[in-house]
């Protein structure tokens, strides 16, 4: 089994592992500016578009929130077929924020992003996990010592739009729930199917622009 492989998944179905992110990456690049650099290419397999980001694919893994950190009220209201504490999570929180922002801007298109599936975690996720809401949202601040300038939750942007789109038979939320219910990497679509293997991630690797570190 490989250490990781590339798949495509809705960025809305991926959860944050930390409650706060900074407004810049470690290399000094501004997060908001990076969002403007994200484009898209035609999608496949139920996705209308696949994001073309200027950074490598984020790494995700299937992980269960420890019960002591879980929100019991959220568990009780979880949709049928979705395990309340088990979801796709990432440690690349700033890049996930960028991808979710880009996906919201493309609504009502069903958008996916290329991700790298991790099959093993030495305990890093449990050590760093401090989300207070199952990873649904994240606050943004100039530094961890300063008060947040904003809080991001894609549901606040998409849910009102989905509710208003009464004629949409297959909306964004359906795609999100479908990906969340896929418990294994084998259930996700292979990124190799994107243009016969020419993936957006390949362009990011070939670009002269340095990769954006988390």
The SSE string, one letter per element, is EEEHEEEHEHEHEEHHEH
Strand content: 15-25%
Shape, per Cα inertia axes: globular
Total helical segments: 7
Question: In a few lines, what is going on in this structure?
Answer:
With 214 residues, the chain is of the alpha/beta class. The chain has seven helices and eleven strands. Residues 203-210 have low confidence and may be disordered.
SSE inventory with pairings:
Elements: E1 4-9, E2 14-16, E3 20-22, H1 31-36, E4 39-42, E5 49-52, E6 58-64, H2 72-76, E7 86-90, H3 93-105, E8 111-118, H4 124-128, E9 138-141, E10 150-152, H5 154-164, H6 172-181, E11 189-190, H7 200-206
Parallel strand pairs: 2-7, 3-9, 5-8, 6-8
Antiparallel strand pairs: 1-8, 1-11, 4-5, 6-7, 9-10
Detailed description of the structure:
It is a single chain. The chain contains seven helices and eleven strands. With about 210 residues, the chain is of the alpha/beta class. The longest helix is centred in the middle third of the chain and has 13 residues, at about 95-105.
């Amino acid at each position: 089994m490989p250490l990781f492989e590339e798949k495509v998944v809705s960025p809305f179905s991926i959860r944050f592992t930390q409650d706060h992110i900074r407004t810049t990456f470690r290399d000094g690049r501004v997060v908001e500016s990076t969002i403007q650099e994200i484009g898209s290419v035609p999608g496949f397999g139920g996705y209308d578009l696949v994001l073309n980001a200027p950074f490598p694919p984020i790494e995700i893994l299937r992980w269960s929130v420890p019960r002591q950190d879980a929100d019991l009220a959220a568990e009780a209201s979880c949709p049928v077929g979705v395990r309340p504490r088990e979801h796709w999570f990432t440690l690349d929180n700033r890049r996930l924020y960028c991808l979710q922002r880009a996906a919201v801007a493309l609504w009502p298109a069903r958008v996916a992003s290329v991700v790298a599936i991790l099959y093993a975690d030495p305990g890093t996720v449990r050590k760093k996990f401090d989300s207070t809401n199952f990873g649904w949202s994240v606050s943004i601040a100039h530094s961890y010592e300063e008060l947040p300038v904003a809080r991001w939750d894609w549901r606040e942007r998409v849910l009102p739009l989905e509710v208003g789109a009464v004629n949409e038979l297959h909306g964004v939320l359906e795609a999100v729930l479908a990906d969340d219910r896929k418990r294994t990497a084998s259930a996700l679509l292979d990124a190799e199917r994107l243009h016969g293997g020419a993936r957006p991630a390949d362009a990011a690797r070939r670009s002269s622009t340095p990769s954006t570190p988390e």
